[in-house]
Write a structure and sequence with these properties.
about 120 residues; alpha+beta; seven-stranded antiparallel β-sheet; two-stranded antiparallel sheet; 1 helix; about 15% helix; about 45% strand; globular
Length: about 120
């Protein structure tokens, strides 16, 4: 009996891992050398992990890494144009007086997302 339950549990765990892996989210890390504004919130300079939701690509998670204690969800729309770094992931900023504002997020596949309400 124990062996059947154990095999069932392992099979269920393997199914969950495969199902989760079937729709991977686009994730990358980036270092931003200056403070910047995202939808009215100022984020400090530092290392960030950027992850697009696999179920809803309009939602992007920005999470501080390596001592940066910031986590926020950002609503985006498809960006026009092309990835300014080719096929490399990149964040693009616009400068407004003394502030830098996050404008676009380009993932490793070259797909861009524009930040909604960045101004």
């Amino acid at each position: 009996m124990w062996s059947v339950m154990r095999k069932s549990a392992l099979l269920a765990a393997a199914f969950i891992v495969c199902a989760a892996g079937s729709a991977p989210a686009s994730t990358f890390e980036v270092k931003v050398p200056f403070p910047f504004v995202v939808q009215g919130h100022t984020l400090p300079a530092g290392q960030y992990r950027v992850q697009r939701d696999a179920m809803d690509p309009s939602v992007v998670l920005i999470r501080g890494e390596k001592g940066v204690a910031v986590t926020m969800f950002v609503v985006t729309i498809p960006a026009a144009g092309h990835d300014p770094a080719g096929e490399e992931p990149v964040l693009t900023f616009t400068r407004h007086e003394t502030q830098y504002r996050l404008a676009d997020i380009w993932d490793p596949g070259g797909q861009g997302r524009e930040i909604v309400g960045s101004w």
